[in-house]
Amino acid sequence: MTDVDSPNRPRVRADLAAMTGYHSPQVSVSVRLNTNESPLGPPDELVKRVAAEAANIAWHRYPDRSASALRQAIGKVMDQPADRIYCANGSNEVLQNLLLTYAGAGRKTLTFEPTYALHSHLSLTTGSITVSEQRDEHFELSVDTAREAVARHRPAVTFLCSPNNPTGVLESRSLVESVLESVEAVGGLLIVDEAYGEFAPWSAIELVDEERSVVVVKTYSKTWAMAGVRLGYLIGPKWLVKEMEAVTLPYHLDSMKQAMGMAALDYQAAMVDRVNAIKDERVRMAARLEQLGCHVWPSAANFILFRPPSSAPQDTWGELVERSVLIRNTSSWNGLEGCLRVTIGSMEENSTFLDALADILGQS
Q: Residue 237 CB: number of other CB atoms within 10 A?
């Protein structure tokens, strides 16, 4: 009898038995444009400052459990009081802890597909009942569809991702307000995931209020060029932040991470410059993709969703890898048949990708 067949071996929860992990392919290539990272690292001055900060940390002591200094620093930049800020190890842990607090066994979460796959994944792992509704052929979400879905499912948590990943679609303020009204009518919580919010013209932070059931989740990974740090935060009502403390592990945010998060905020001008450079490249890439005959969806994020002409997306993706260029193959995702997603990289990386794609499509 093998270990797998042993009757004494613990069994995975039945609702997770068929689940696979959420992963991005990691392939050794020259140009990696598949995970929406910043093409540029943080300023050299910041890197040196962080190295110096390490010498001042009392490594034998636990970190500040409430991350109070970091929350105050984020609040100052976001023009919000510190007790409306909650920090965790990446926006994914923020989302997980929100679900542990407000969803879980017997409660429903609602997503509008296609959208960020981890919303459903985390819902399942926290024991929630996951339901979804489909966006239209343009990946837009109508007010009527959203309101009807909330009224019918009565979810404890409703997700909106804006700009949406992997489509790049930006939700309008009027839509978010309408969904929020519907969510509040059933006693639920609206989570607006703004991992790519700095690339967009408006933020749902404008709607956060002590009387509203909405929270906005942000990350340092994209615009702050700190994906390797794994630091995220939310902006929400004070009562929500206080209630989340009950599910937060003690000392979950290490001292080094807190120091790095605070230091980065002093380099906001550099962050804005990176964002503007990426937005400029986004325009150039979209125009070139259209010239190559691809169907391109308008994006308000740091990536572009496109459908190559007449070529199987799997073949296109594989031929790009053969040319040492890695993008995301989304063709098997819900509603994204034939689609690929490319991160906006540096000008040189983007040109390499575009030249490789043109060669594959016979248009070089």
A: 19
pLDDT tens string 130-184: 999 999 999 999 999 999 999 999 999 999 999 999 999 999 999 999 999 999 9
* pLDDT value at 126 more than 60: yes
Q: Is 344 part of any domain?
A: yes
Average of per-residue pLDDT across 79-87: 97
- Looking at the structure, do residues 105 and 159 belong to the same domain, yes or no? yes
Q: Is residue 11 part of a domain?
A: no
pLDDT score of 1 more than 50? no
CATH number at 232 reads: 3.40.640.10
pLDDT tens for each residue of 202-238: 999 999 999 999 999 999 999 999 999 999 999 999 9
Whether pTM > 0.90 for this model: the answer is yes
- With bands split at pLDDT 50, 70 and 90, how would you rate the model's confidence at 114? very high
Q: Is there a single domain that holds both residue 213 and residue 309?
A: no
CB 108 within 8 A of CB 130: yes
Number of folded domains that form the chain: 2
Looking at the domain assignment, is residue 54 inside a domain?
A: no
Beta strands at 85-88 and 232-235: parallel, antiparallel or unpaired: antiparallel
